[in-house]
Design a protein that fits this description.
Layout (H helix, E strand, L loop, with lengths): L1 H28 L9 H4 L11 H11 L1
Length: 65
């Protein structure tokens, strides 16, 4: 029973730290904002940087669920 408790505590601790560290990185190291554009839209040249079509994005989201 002791090994199970250690496994559960380790799993819960890793989930909590994942959330906390993600928020820390998002707020201090890489300042994230909703205003920023992805490179495919910002640097669009029709060859290397091409945005994905809406139909493909929607189908990918449906396949993941």
């Amino acid at each position: 029973m002791g090994a199970l408790a250690i496994m559960v505590l380790a799993f819960a601790g890793s989930i909590i730290m994942y959330q906390l560290y993600g928020k820390y990185i998002g707020s201090t190291i890489f300042p994230l904002s909703g205003d920023s554009q992805p490179p495919s839209r910002e640097l669009e040249d029709g060859v290397d940087y091409v945005p994905t079509k809406k139909e493909i994005e929607r189908n990918m989201c449906m396949a993941i669920k």
